Amino acid sequence: MAVSKSTLSIVFIVLGGLAVLFGTVLVFVGPIIIDDQIVKNVEINPNNGLSYTMWKDIPVPFFMSVYFFHIVNPDEILKGEKPTVVQRGPYVYRENRWKDNITFHDNHTVSYKEFRQYFFEESMSVGDESDVVTIPNILVLGASVMMENMPFPVRLLLSTTFKTFNEGPFLTKPVGELMWGYDSKLVDFLNKYLPGMLPTSGKFGLFAEFNNSNTGQFTVFTGQDDIRKVHMVDSWNGLKSVDYWRSEECNMINGTAGQMWPPFMTKESTMPFYSPDACRSMELVYQRPGVSRGVPVYHFVAPKTLFANGADYPPNEGFCPCRQSGLLNVSTCRHNSPVFISHPHFFEADPVLLDTVNGLSPNEDEHGLFIDIHPETGVPMNVSIRLQLNLYSRSTVSNICVQTGKIAEVVMPMIWFEESGYIDGPVLNTFRTSLVVLPMVMEYMQYIFIALGLAGILGAVMLYVNDKVHGLLRLFSMFEYFTYNIFCFRACMFV
């Protein structure tokens, strides 16, 4: 039996109404469901396979690229001329990171130590670790500044020691030895007679402390009681603050451990983190939106005030004694050695620093640090942390003048390095499906149901109206036919 159009109209109206109702409910309930799933997935919980694995073992490619500033005029520098450097690199190391000694606490925190190992990647490097470069000798030039105000016998002993072991103001050695350490009779002597002066009791190298080491014990919030605190540092090595700096604000341990951040970030959010290597907390700021491997991200960068001196940015006064803006004095946490951290090539630093060294050319694309982060989850998708290590040097009036010659007062760049990583492969696919595609599908579904529902209701109305119009047309046709017959009947009677 044929179904009437009126019945079909009623069916379409009911189905359309239900679709609109369901879509409207999704508009309000959908975001709640999505946010709830994000909260469950980003909290530090062993039951969360994806996020816990990413937090614990960091199963993504991570590399450290090192660039040396090779000194081409060492003899002229000792005569007071401006240093000229040539960048050599990158020398790339694959970096393995993992967390161990993981302990969950009753106050919704978890403690751990993060270990790291480095493996040379010759295929990604400009050469191998046997390449020879010349850089400032931090033992000699650093000690010459450190010992300037020491008693005369100490200065005399140190100067004599340098002569005895044939140590000069510059080192010419293979990359591998400069990175991971070399045997030095001078180091052995200093450790024997001046214990504690050097950070190592074995081989001396710029990264000798880094390989097969950990960054200390972090205690961070799991987010199980408050997702806004997930990954935020509660303490580092049992400390709520450090004592390297001259103000309470500068000594604060703020933010996360620098790997993940709390979810639901906005353009007004910042990205604070504590760096044991820099001995301080730092903070990145939002710059622009973007897309990384199909995932929407926010692009965060270092503010220009990050390494500004106290004169240009008063809150940084606690990091002083300062030199020009663009330099962070880390001597207090580096055995009082006159070492400074900056952006590579003195990017965003006082221009006077560039005037004292030949061969530098800073630009944001190559030397600015950034993190691309998925704002809904707080998971970094692409990371590039770039820092430069510099040594403050000058000729001294002490008995080390033979070593320092007439060297001009200068902050000499030694190396800069980039720690970079990005989510890729199966982890990226799982992340994109679980935390990007599915929420997007749910968001689109609400509008699809509303559109289909409205289309169904409109179709029902049109069907109903069409049925009524056809009914009227049929009625009009019958009336017309009846009128015509009457007219014909009357005409026949007159005939």
TrEMBL record:
<dbReference type="GO" id="GO:0005901">
    <property type="term" value="C:caveola"/>
</dbReference>
<dbReference type="GO" id="GO:0070508">
    <property type="term" value="P:cholesterol import"/>
</dbReference>
<keyword id="KW-0812">Transmembrane</keyword>
<comment type="similarity">
    <text>Belongs to the CD36 family.</text>
</comment>
<dbReference type="GO" id="GO:0034381">
    <property type="term" value="P:plasma lipoprotein particle clearance"/>
</dbReference>
<dbReference type="InterPro" id="IPR002159">
    <property type="entry name" value="CD36_fam"/>
</dbReference>
<dbReference type="GO" id="GO:0005737">
    <property type="term" value="C:cytoplasm"/>
</dbReference>
<keyword id="KW-0325">Glycoprotein</keyword>
<dbReference type="GO" id="GO:0030169">
    <property type="term" value="F:low-density lipoprotein particle binding"/>
</dbReference>
<dbReference type="GO" id="GO:0008289">
    <property type="term" value="F:lipid binding"/>
</dbReference>
<dbReference type="GO" id="GO:0043654">
    <property type="term" value="P:recognition of apoptotic cell"/>
</dbReference>
<dbReference type="GO" id="GO:0033344">
    <property type="term" value="P:cholesterol efflux"/>
</dbReference>
<keyword id="KW-0472">Membrane</keyword>
<keyword id="KW-1003">Cell membrane</keyword>
<keyword id="KW-1133">Transmembrane helix</keyword>
<dbReference type="GO" id="GO:0005044">
    <property type="term" value="F:scavenger receptor activity"/>
</dbReference>
<dbReference type="Pfam" id="PF01130">
    <property type="entry name" value="CD36"/>
</dbReference>
<feature type="transmembrane region" description="Helical">
    <location>
        <begin position="12"/>
        <end position="34"/>
    </location>
</feature>
<feature type="transmembrane region" description="Helical">
    <location>
        <begin position="444"/>
        <end position="465"/>
    </location>
</feature>
<keyword id="KW-0675">Receptor</keyword>
<keyword id="KW-1015">Disulfide bond</keyword>
<protein>
    <recommendedName>
        <fullName>Scavenger receptor class B member 1</fullName>
    </recommendedName>
</protein>
<dbReference type="InterPro" id="IPR005428">
    <property type="entry name" value="CD36/SCARB1/SNMP1"/>
</dbReference>
